[in-house]
Write a structure and sequence with these properties.
Number of domains: 2
Order of helices and strands: EHHEHHEHHEHEHHEHHEHEH
Strand order of the largest sheet: 2-1-3-4
Distance between the termini: 23 Å
Strand content: 5-15%
Largest sheet: 4 strands, parallel
Number of strands: 8
Shape: globular
């Protein structure tokens, strides 16, 4: 299958190993991947901040960039939700409404693509560690990610998944939320970190590097012995 990659801007800039890991897994499974190098941002920051005209200008370029793509796979539940769910809202009542809906139908989040679209749970990964999983808000509530990442982790050789009590609670990042309400954001992050620490897991794993960036930053500043890793990085291990 020919797959067009969707690598969010913050992953490209801060966590390129996550995108590389996704490519490794997809190619291991025998798929051909391509990436439009002109891609920058899906428009979510502007959309979430209420600047819909500016978000629409960015999103129009994304629609044009992926117009000929057969299937689009992204490595973020948050940005995936923007393209799958909120593009239809953003372009409602505009000349590009039909194209936005067609585009959304082609977009898959990485773990959902593997499990739901391909029917694959065992990608040949090996990672001898104890991990706990954080459900990112957009991935959980907008994309429906819950069983898919756990099904993949269950097949990783040597890995033990230990669920934390606050797995579905928000980590407190929320993009601009953490900037506008830093004290609330920090308090929410502390709940997440403490819940993860109680599991005595070696790593917090998630489908969203944005959540993990917030969690790791808080843990580092408060000297908490927590390490974070994106699901794609775990699945790339052999």
């Amino acid at each position: 299958m020919k797959i067009s990659l969707f690598i969010p801007c913050f992953i490209d800039a801060c966590y390129p190993q996550v995108g590389i890991s996704m490519v490794k897994v997809l190619e291991r499974l025998g798929h051909q991947v391509e990436y439009p190098e002109d891609f920058t941002c899906c428009g979510q920051p502007a959309f979430n901040s209420g600047y819909w005209d500016e978000a629409r200008a960015v999103a129009e370029k994304v629609l044009a960039m992926y117009r000929s793509a057969e299937i689009i796979v992204g490595v973020s539940g948050s940005c995936g939700a923007m393209m799958m769910t909120f593009y239809k809202e953003l372009f409602h009542g505009t000349p590009l409404e039909a194209e936005a809906k067609a585009h959304a139908a082609k977009v898959w989040e990485f773990s959902d693509f593997l499990v739901t679209k391909l029917g694959v749970t065992d990608v040949g990964a090996k990672f001898p560690a104890k991990v706990t999983f954080h459900d990112g808000c957009h991935g959980l509530r907008e994309v429906g990610l819950k069983k898919q990442p756990r099904a993949l982790l269950a097949k990783v050789q040597g890995l033990e998944l230990i669920e934390m009590d606050a797995a579905e609670s928000c980590c407190g990042f929320g993009g601009t939320f953490s900037v506008k309400f830093p004290m609330i954001s920090t308090a929410m992050g502390e709940v997440k970190c403490d819940s993860a620490l109680k599991t005595k897991a070696d790593y917090i794993v998630s489908c969203d590097s944005s959540c993990l960036m917030h969690i790791q930053g808080l843990a580092d500043r408060q000297k908490k012995p927590l390490r974070t890793m994106h699901l794609a990085e775990v699945l790339a291990k052999q």
